[in-house]
Amino acid sequence: MTVNTKISLKGQQGSLSNTSRQIEVLEKSDLPSFKSKLKNLSLLPLYPTQLDVFQVNMGKMCNQVCKHCHVDAGPDRKEIMTRETMQQCLDALDNSNIQTVDLTGGAPEMNPDFRWFVEELSKRDKHIIVRCNLTIILANQKYNDLPEFYKKHNIEVVSSLPHFSARRTDSQRGEGVFEKSIKALNMLNEIGYGMENSDLKLNLVFNPSGAFLPGDQKQLENEFKQRLKNDYDIDFHELYAITNLPISRFLDYLVNTGNYEAYMEKLVDAFNPSAATGVMCRNTISIGWDGYLYDCDFNQMLDLKFEGKVPKHIKDFDVKKLESREIKLNNHCYGCTAGSGSSCGGATA
Amino acid sequence: MLEYPIFIVMSKSYYDPADLKKFGDISKFQPELGKKFFDYYGEVFKEGALTQREKALIALAVSHAVQCPYCIDAYTSTSLEKGADEEQMMEAIHVAAAIKSGALLVHGVQMMNKVDELTM
């Protein structure tokens, strides 16, 4: 078993914290390229369908250092979104019909302007999703009221819990994370989150804690529901099964443990054409902490910026132009098309 | 970091991990029976009265009982994918071990019967 560090890969000056080096690893392979697979399906170039989801990465700062993190987030990462960039996001939303705003990070709650931004989104009656790592609620007294804050703004909470066993969760997310996550889930349940027939949505994310793919989402959900209810009296709504994409810290893990090639082979073997047509980058736009625009959070972390006449920054946001862009692809995209497909909302096919 | 190079000498073996992916090739010499087998195999592992996770754990235990390295490789991955944890996987193997050793020990009764037969 590998060990969780206290700082990011960048902080350790790991060679794979460099995005060009990651792309080099992804492209150096005997396996068929992702683009060739899409070409066979006449899906190349890949274009968006309709922009429905506005996903904002509020920064790379996080109280956790999960081994598989595609953001390479951690307490040592200081890159966070400014209020000025958040205002540009609000201006962009005011000029569009996008209803869903998905807040991610790092731990988005650690951004000092997080609550201001949520309040502004709430005034605009947006459907707000927060990707909460759970432990942040207990990390400091100033975060203890987050469940009440979420409730006040009817925020949908999406939280990672890679397993119902402490060992499997802690091996991915760090020692003691499971116990704190359970406490945080209990706090959310207490105010109505995740309860049957409750409008306060609490969804969990399962992502494999190792070099394997997620199984059937519905079956995993049934298993999680039964185990979490019996063992910890926890309720939640849906489980999203998400495949780990071979970038950043997960790529570093795969390479260092000798699992990279076999994992890529698994992804390629499991390529599912119907998942390819429904990839999330076709209805999502991802905004980086510095306001740059990307096809998805993964492309953002690989720094795959748009080319040509497409708006590249939130200050130039233009739905029509963005909907006609060519989506940037590389071999990490196999992660979203394997098996039942994978997206920030779980399986797609 | 290793301070000296290690030269790995590839030895011939009856078991090659790469052969696992060639399992489907068994149909080449007998397509009809191969197809029947794989259709049956696929049906068996579908969700039914047992969940796919439960079936993966049974397969993992049987893999150990029949001591098939290909099957251990495959059903360790499948068990993890289906959400089983390390504790469940090891317990499944203990079930196989208990039956294997129990099956051996219950033959002790046969030995005892024979002893009765042969001794005064």
How do the strands line up in the largest sheet of chain A?
A: 6-5-4-3-2-1-7-8
Beta-strand content estimate of chain A: 5-15%
- When the domains of chain B are counted, the total is 1
Q: What is the total domain count of chain A?
A: 1
Judging from the principal axes of the Cα atoms, what is the shape of chain B? extended
Order of helices and strands of chain B: HHHH
Q: What is the CATH superfamily of chain B? A: AhpD-like
Q: Which radius of gyration of chain A do the C-alpha atoms yield?
A: 19 Å
Q: Greatest interface and its residue counts?
A: A-B, 18 and 12 residues
- Indicate the CATH architecture of chain B: Up-down Bundle
How many alpha or pi helices of chain A? Answer: 15
The number of distinct helices of chain B, counting runs of at least 4 residues, comes to 4
Average per-residue pLDDT of chain A, rounded, comes to 96
Q: What shape does the CA trace of chain A take? A: globular
Task: Briefly say what this structure is.
By secondary structure, chain A is an alpha/beta fold.
Please explain how this structure is put together.
The complex is a heterodimer of chains A (349) and B (120). Chain A has 15 helices and 8 strands. Chain A has helices spanning 19-27, 34-40, 83-94, 114-123, 136-139, 146-152, 166-173, 177-190, 217-232, 248-256, 260-269, 273-277, 297-301, 319-323, 334-337, and strands spanning 53-57, 100-104, 127-132, 156-160, 202-206, 239-241, 284-287, 293-294. By secondary structure, chain B is mainly α. In chain B, helix 2 (52-65) packs antiparallel against helix 3 (69-81) and helix 2 (52-65) packs across helix 4. Residues 1-7 of chain B have low confidence and may be disordered. The interface between A and B is medium-sized, with 18 and 12 residues.
